[in-house]
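Tokens help. One example:
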Amino acid sequence: MKTADLVDAHGEEVHFCDLPFLKVGKTKSFRGPIATVKCFEDNAVLKAELQKPGEGRVMVVDGGASSRVALLGDQIAMILRDNGWAGIVINGAVRDSAEIAEMDVGVFCLSVTPKKSVKDGAGKTGIPVQFGGVTFAPGAYLYADADGVLVSARDLC
């Protein structure tokens, strides 16, 4: 599954997320049904969602493009890996990037920072989120690789 091939084969059926993601983790490509979290500088809801069985889904996090604090670090990345999530796309920052780079996880994010987030529990799950010119709806399909992130209403593979 290459995103370039999906664009060529499916044209208007796929939507390209127009953001310059950093790719962290050993897993360089992933795909699956979308699950969502919307939170701003608070990762408590995200951590709780990732503790649920991932079942091959991709977590999409709208962190409001904040680069001030990280929504994911090495400990939460281990939870992502251990609970069967295919990968995570974060409209925001991560930390512990050197440790995550050595893990078998797929993490796409906008930036890195050393500062951790608050844990007040503010956020929403299971709602459509928008960034990079794309709407990420729970249950739609996400495809991610070195060329970028695509979304489709149905599974194309």
User: Anything to note?
Assistant: The chain has one domain: 3-152. The CA atoms of residues 77 and 100 lie 7 Å apart.
